[in-house]
């Protein structure tokens, strides 16, 4: 029987956790993430205040079957037990209907999305308009007909739920793909970690099913809770894990180690250990150590040390002429009239878009050493984006469809169910950007003024390609022309909305932050990003995002550029 184990996992990786978990004992709740529970209706309170208290109580501890919220319900409703997803909504008003003593209170707002039982978030905009009836007894207003669903205020969401990236394998089994889940922050750290591992074993979310795979046998079980001793965290699984096919053993180890690393978050200085039937060894059947496997599958390794390129005067150049910066790939180094370009993360292939006769545009692809061949000519071709292993490149074609150019094969149109309906008559697909994991795909759709960001799942073969499970994750954009992945589950786009603004968007639609783009005075045309470094072109120059705002990448003279890109 094959016995697996994990050595210490270093803290130098960068699985994206949107909010850090403070260190603490395994059996203690994390106090920084727990609200003070509203107690109960007040004798001098109003019906509106009781409903407001009820909504606040819902944002405390679902773990205890909403005991705090039930204090605001009439005795006949103490068995209230909602079973559907949480409706995360932005509250507009809680107000009396008719006379103040009528006991009718109306809750209005805008639904952002649903938090499902498996911890996934599904963006689903909708109007919230619920009227509840309260009755007064013993001087207290209590709700007589509570909503069928849990109405969860969005301003408490990030305090009540901790995002955890669980990792599954891409179709090749060579890369990890994040699947973000949200876990109750009021539970103990041990319970939260255990819940994360159970969700990992249960498999990918419905959104990613079919596009990713798991190397963890379905019969695998946890042997007790995840435990912490000092700074070390141990995950003990049943011997069913040994049923994994030999070629997937390394991937299974990587899934456990990196998912646990993401769940642990703020526990510093310790290691994540994987045990099978309580036994820990230092290597797997192939002789590779788990430390080597962990490094091999590091989700951020591919983008950690990439250098950017720019386009100036139709020529591809380095952004900074540093001695250690890689040279421009020879396949495009002598090209002129370049409108946009891209290079695969592994450096093996490049693509570029050049102007063609009659105002049209041509996409060229090929190996980085050349030669490039023209693969597509259309009215417009967006900036291309590559699959991580340079199997093929994607671009928006004529603003209406997604073209996929597999290496050494003809271009095909990627099927995208639902895209035509989203585009409508006037919408244009202006940007396509594949995530470093090669599975998640971000799109920007604009009608010339207002734009949307969509995220879907990309799957391709030599003769077929598809973008499925499209979901709109932002509809607040104005003047946006591009989008970039800044991490596993984070996107950035910039446009004009009165002022130049930047939108930081969670890729599952669970959150969005809009801030003023200080230092930019014109609408950016292209964005390029790797974790902790973002570049844009604006007004014919290249800018980099610093803590103080946008400035020249070298902090001195302006660097010309009409386009900018990192490999990817």
Describe this structure in words.
The chain has 8 helices and 34 strands. A 5-stranded mixed beta sheet has the order 4-3-2-1-5. Strands 29, 30, 31, 32 and 33 form a 5-stranded antiparallel beta sheet that branches. It is globular. Helix content is 12%, strand content 39%. With 568 residues, the protein is mainly beta.
* Share of helix, binned: 10-25%
Based on secondary structure, the structural category is mainly beta
**How many H/I helices?**
8
* Rg result: 26 Å
First and last CA, distance: 40 Å
Number of strands: 34
- Stretches with pLDDT under 50, minimum 5 residues: 1-35
Write the layout of secondary structure elements.
Blueprint: H1 47-58, H2 67-70, E1 86-96, E2 104-115, E3 121-137, E4 140-143, E5 151-153, H3 157-160, E6 161-169, E7 176-184, H4 189-202, E8 227-229, E9 232-237, H5 249-264, E10 272-276, H6 290-296, E11 309-312, E12 315-318, H7 330-333, E13 338-343, E14 349-355, E15 361-367, E16 373-378, E17 385-386, E18 392-397, E19 401-406, E20 412-414, H8 419-423, E21 428-434, E22 440-446, E23 450-460, E24 465-478, E25 484-487, E26 490-497, E27 499-506, E28 512-516, E29 524-530, E30 533-538, E31 541-546, E32 549-551, E33 559-560, E34 563-565
Parallel strand pairs: 1-5, 9-10
Antiparallel strand pairs: 1-2, 2-3, 3-4, 6-7, 8-9, 11-12, 11-34, 13-14, 14-15, 15-16, 17-18, 18-19, 19-20, 21-22, 22-23, 23-24, 25-26, 26-27, 27-28, 29-30, 30-31, 31-32, 31-33
Helix pairs in contact: 4-5
């Amino acid at each position: 029987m094959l016995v697996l184990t994990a050595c210490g996992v270093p803290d130098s990786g960068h699985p994206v956790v949107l909010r850090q978990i403070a260190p603490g004992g395994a059996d203690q709740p994390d106090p920084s993430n727990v609200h003070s529970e509203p107690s109960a209706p007040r004798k001098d309170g109003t019906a509106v205040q009781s409903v407001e208290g009820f909504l606040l109580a819902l944002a405390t501890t679902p773990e205890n079957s909403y005991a705090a919220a039930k204090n605001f319900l009439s005795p006949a409703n103490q068995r209230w037990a909602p079973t559907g997803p949480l409706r995360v909504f932005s509250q507009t008003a809680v107000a009396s209907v008719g006379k103040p003593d009528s006991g009718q209170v109306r809750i209005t707002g805008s639904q952002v999305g649903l938090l499902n039982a498996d911890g996934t978030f599904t963006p689903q905009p909708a109007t919230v308009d619920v009227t509840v009836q309260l009755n007064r007894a013993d001087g207290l207003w209590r709700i007589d007909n509570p909503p069928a669903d849990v109405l969860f205020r969005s301003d408490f969401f990030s305090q009540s739920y901790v995002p955890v990236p669980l990792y599954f394998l891409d179709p090749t089994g060579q890369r990890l793909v994040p699947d973000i889940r949200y876990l109750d922050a009021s539970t103990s750290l041990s319970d939260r970690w255990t819940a994360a591992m159970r969700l990992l074993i249960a498999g990918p979310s419905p959104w990613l099913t079919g596009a990713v795979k798991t190397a963890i046998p379905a019969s695998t079980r946890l042997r007790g809770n995840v435990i912490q001793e000092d700074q070390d965290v141990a995950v003990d699984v049943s011997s069913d894990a040994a049923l994994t096919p030999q070629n997937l053993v390394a991937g299974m180890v990587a899934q456990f180690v990196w998912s646990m690393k993401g769940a642990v978050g703020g526990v510093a200085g310790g290691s994540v250990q994987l045990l099978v039937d309580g036994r820990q060894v230092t290597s797997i059947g192939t002789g590779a150590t788990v430390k080597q496997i962990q490094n091999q599958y590091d989700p951020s390794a591919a983008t950690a040390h990439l250098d950017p390129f720019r386009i100036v005067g139709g020529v591809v150049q380095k952004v900074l002429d540093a001695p250690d910066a890689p040279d421009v790939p020879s396949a495009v180094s002598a090209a002129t009239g370049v409108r946009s370009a891209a290079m695969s993360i592994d450096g093996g292939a490049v693509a570029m878009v050049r102007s063609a006769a009659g105002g049209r545009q041509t996409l060229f692809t090929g190996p980085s050493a050349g030669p490039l061949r023209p693969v597509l000519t259309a009215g417009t071709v967006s900036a291309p984006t590559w699959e991580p292993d340079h199997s093929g490149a994607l671009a928006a074609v004529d603003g209406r469809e997604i073209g996929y150019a597999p290496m050494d094969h003809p271009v095909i149109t990627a099927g995208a169910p639902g895209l035509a309906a989203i585009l409508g008559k006037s919408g244009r697909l202006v940007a396509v950007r594949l995530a470093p994991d090669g599975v998640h795909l971000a799109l920007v759709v604009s009608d010339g003024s207002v734009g949307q960001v969509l995220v879907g799942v990309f799957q391709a073969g030599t003769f077929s390609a598809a973008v499925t499970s499209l979901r709109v994750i932002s509809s607040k954009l104005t003047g946006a022309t591009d989008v970039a992945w800044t991490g596993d589950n984070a996107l950035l786009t910039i446009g004009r909305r009165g002022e130049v603004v930047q939108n930081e968007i969670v890729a599952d639609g669970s959150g969005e932050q809009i801030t003023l783009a200080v230092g930019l005075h014109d609408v950016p045309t292209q964005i390029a990003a790797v974790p902790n470094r973002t570049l844009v072109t604006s007004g014919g120059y290249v800018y980099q995002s610093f803590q103080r705002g946008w400035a020249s990448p070298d902090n001195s003279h302006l660097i010309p550029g009409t386009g900018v890109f990192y490999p990817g």
